[in-house]
């Protein structure tokens, strides 16, 4: 069989399993109103939780920096690609999250792969929640370490996996907020386990920063933990910060080691300096304009109250991610298509992103949604899913 024949056969298998994927073309956006494939839709699947991707100050910072520095960085950070804008972003991020140092990388995926490959080896053990993001699992696999996964949120199993590890290099790694379920990890529990077993605790807070904590600083703030308790924090910048790339936060020694040895950092063009300049403004907004976080929190609360009143079996999530379980792929796709016909963009999440039989709508709320849009979504969800829910 030729390569093309093999690929076509696999595509046919995915068709039969309702797991085919395609890209949608967004031609314009205005707040959460998106023009998508010629339709006007309210986007309820965006990760732009605080609306910073379109905030005028963030956009202006990007434009000014591009006018000054050009577009591409034109080199890897260790050759000629590291600009003043990158250095300033790293300084600001370290100060805001209370860490000694920060490293700005091209993506969250690349940050996690780089950290785990650089710090783990075949003698190491990496203990992870089963629902961790794919790049944390891939990073551990690529590092050659023994990857030990525990059932989602099961602290007893997490402790058992750490207790049985015979290694000097034990990492305990978790999402702060799980990207497809929206629930928060038990960070206090994980911190206790890390302490008892001398493990390095690493948290990826892609969906916690900007959302959780009294001022939106994320999962650590919500759990009352600091840099001392979580030695490695990863903040992907493509979600609430509205940009692209990721900030790795850690002690100076760790950051220095990573910038000299993490292969995806060494062998990749540095992110655009204009993106770093824009993100520095996003961090400033997070620190100084609490209204965005307050508005997001209010929208999450409002959605949950209305969804409960409508009898929708929402999962136990207090983050911006509010999944509605469909069960099989066909149901998730049917719901998503019906929502689209009603003017809403809510994507159906299917395997391999989630386990078999746990396909769902992944609804996300942002600070830019209006109460009227949220009410209209709940009404549509009630109507469309009224023919029977899978249990959450
Ligand atoms: C928890 C988590 N970590 C990392 C990433 C990857 O970040 P990036 O999109 O910047 O590669 C994502 C999503 O994209 C995520 O949800």
Kindly describe this structure:
With 392 residues, this protein is of the alpha/beta class. The chain folds into two domains: 121 residues, Aspartate Aminotransferase, domain 1; 229 residues, 3-Layer(aba) Sandwich (Aspartate Aminotransferase, domain 2), CATH 3.40.640. 43% of the residues lie in helices and 17% in strands. It is built from 15 helices and 14 strands. The strands form three sheets. The protein has a seven-stranded mixed beta sheet, sandwiched between helices. Helix 6 links the parallel strand 5 and strand 6. Helix 5 runs parallel beside helix 6 and helix 13 packs parallel to helix 15. The longest helix is centred in the last third of the chain and has 19 residues. The radius of gyration is 21 Å and the shape is globular. The N and C termini lie far apart (42 Å). The mean pLDDT is 96. Bound molecules: pyridoxal-5'-phosphate. The site of pyridoxal-5'-phosphate has 12 residues, from helix 5.
Topology of this protein?
Blueprint: H1 3-16, E1 26-30, E2 33-36, E3 39-43, H2 56-69, H3 77-81, H4 84-97, E4 101-105, H5 108-119, E5 125-129, H6 134-143, E6 146-150, H7 155-163, E7 170-175, H8 187-196, E8 200-204, H9 219-223, E9 232-236, E10 246-250, H10 252-261, H11 263-266, H12 273-288, H13 291-309, E11 321-327, H14 329-341, E12 344-345, E13 348-349, E14 359-364, H15 371-384
Parallel strand pairs: 3-12, 5-6, 5-7, 7-8, 8-9
Antiparallel strand pairs: 1-2, 2-3, 4-10, 9-10, 11-14, 13-14
